[in-house]
């Protein structure tokens, strides 16, 4: 049977007030697959928590994902997120739509500055802010994404492009790497559009090895039909493809953590340990903001690991995180 539902106002008040000192057990920043999964785990661990979401999840742009178990026919990103929020609502938790503008540390807890609202205080913070794809300069970009004409992740949906005529937008090694992945895995009809950038002789040789055509002229125009890209004009010539991938890079949204001194890699992705702890004590990270494979199921796995560790360490006077010496809550299996 489902858990008894607390009234939304009462449960939210409990979560927002936290302990008598007004400090939450955990604050989750980001309401995508990772943040919502972590909130579900912590709610079921009976922790005092809040989830703040700016409403810009990368997952919301997925027209249909087939890599999630139990959804053989695929599921759209917005539908998936709505289902996650519905599951969380059964425990009386509703994400707060707001932006966390800064994160600071005060003695044994964090303080999150909220745009247009009072700050939140929590002993532990899970950053699930994800990343943002660098968009190509194309007309009707959002419409092309919604219709599945422009894609960002061949790991997610390359299977649906198997045997098709595929083009990749990308510069240098990143664009070529994605083109090689698609050519090796799904189709031999691959063209790399370098957007005016010339590849090195080594990259050209690698492209030739995998049968990848190169078009180096900038894009002049793009035409679409109902279910396909009908034409791309480059250098005065028209080319036709069935699927277009963008491999222009990612902007990792890790600034809240790096401003506190959290270690990151050269792309800005956060470096975490096996428990999804960053190098800042008490600060966790999960999902695409973490260095590794950007996949929904990976993000959910990060969230489960992080949430369980947060629960196990809550209210324990650990060596690296002093304070919080209230009666210990039940401990979950690590």
Describe this structure in words.
- This protein is of the alpha/beta class.
- It folds into two domains: 8-132 and 250-313, 3-Layer(bba) Sandwich (FAD/NAD(P)-binding domain); 135-247, FAD/NAD(P)-binding domain.
- Helix content is 27%, strand content 23%.
- The protein is built from nine helices and 17 strands.
- Strands 1, 2, 3, 4, 5, 6 and 17 form a seven-stranded mixed β-sheet that branches. Strands 8-15-9-10-11 form a five-stranded parallel β-sheet. A three-stranded antiparallel β-sheet has the order 12-13-14, with no helix packed on it.
- Strand 13 (229-234) and strand 14 (237-239) form a beta hairpin.
- Helix 2 runs parallel beside helix 3 and helix 2 runs parallel beside helix 9.
- The longest helix is centred in the last third of the chain and has 18 residues, at 296-313.
- The chain is elongated and about 65 Å long.
- It starts with 7 loop residues before the first helix and ends in a 21-residue tail after the last helix.
- Mean pLDDT is 86; it is low at 1-19 and 317-331.
